[in-house]
Design brief:
The protein has 265 residues and is α/β, with parallel strands linked by helices. The chain has one domain: 2-enoyl-CoA Hydratase, Chain A, domain 1, CATH 3.90.226.10. The protein has a 6-stranded mixed beta sheet, with helices on both faces. A 3-stranded mixed beta sheet has the order 5-7-8. α3 runs antiparallel to α10 and α5 crosses α6. The protein starts with 9 loop residues before the first strand and ends in a 9-residue tail after the last helix.
């Protein structure tokens, strides 16, 4: 049995071969801090070779899944320059890669805000279920930024045509539209229905042999041509350029000041 790491931003509960991972920064709608990224990567690493852990269930505390990146980390990086932004951005891409390739079945339970980085996590799950009122979106371009590490996984999940529309408009949409896009597999009307659906899905997962599932997942991902590390490296460089550029500075300041950026009509 794996020894799970100590975590401050996550709640971990392991029982019956299922590790429940709850993003636990409810005051910020579970915004993805660098610490949370690091802790999630450590958890995934700790169970990677443990076939007694059959499934990973990722959800958020306080009625939200994840509202995207933590702007406090962005502010801290600003003092250190473009290299810090690139490393901050690329660390999240490394998390997405680790989640994408986790040998366990990764299930996301999506409520409330599913934005930016939260959207990216939904895209690397094997099975996604959402509350019908969940709010999905890629808000980065409305902040003068790029969905740099997320974009390749979004394209792989829902296709280039829809990814272009969503990324270039920062449009918000609900669970029903997420289902139509193929982003999620199940949409439920309330938390009780979500919990029942999760139980049903886990029953099916636990009928499958863990090593066979791990190898099948590896085969399927190889067949689809997974996003490359080289592309994610380059995307992190682009992100650093955007966030330190004129638009990125204006967009993030406008967000903090709760006003429209100058390009928004």
């Amino acid at each position: 049995m794996s020894s799970l790491p100590e975590c401050q931003t996550l709640l971990l509960e392991l029982h019956g071969g299922v590790l429940h991972i709850t993003l636990n920064r409810p005051d910020s709608r579970n915004a993805m801090s660098l610490q949370m990224v690091s802790e999630l990567r450590a958890v995934l690493s700790s169970v990677r070779d443990d076939r007694s852990v059959r499934a990973l269930v990722l959800s958020g505390a306080g009625g939200h899944f994840c509202a995207g990146g933590d702007l406090k980390d962005m502010a801290n990086a600003r003092a250190q320059g473009a290299d810090a932004y690139r490393e901050l951005n690329r660390a999240f891409g490394a998390l997405l890669e680790a989640a994408q390739h986790a040998p366990q079945v990764l299930i996301t339970v999506l409520q409330g805000a599913v934005l930016g980085g939260g959207f990216g996590l939904a895209c690397v799950s094997d099975i996604a279920m959402a509350d019908h009122q969940a709010q999905f979106g890629l808000p980065e371009t409305s902040l003068g930024l790029l969905p740099a590490q997320i974009a390749p996984f979004v394209v792989q999940r829902i296709g280039l045509t829809e990814a272009r529309r969503l990324a270039l408009t920062a449009a918000r949409f609900d669970g029903h539209q997420a289902r139509r896009l193929g982003l999620v597999h199940f949409v439920e009307q309330d938390p009780q229905a979500l919990a029942e659906r999760l139980d049903e899905v886990l029953q099916h997962v636990l009928c499958c042999a863990p090593e066979a599932n791990a190898m099948t997942k590896q085969l399927l991902l190889a067949s689809a041509g997974p996003p490359s590390g080289a592309l994610l490296d380059e995307a992190a460089q682009w992100f650093a350029g955007a966030v330190t550029g004129e638009e990125g500075i204006e967009g993030t300041m406008a967000f903090v000041q709760k006003r429209k950026p100058r390009w928004a009509t």
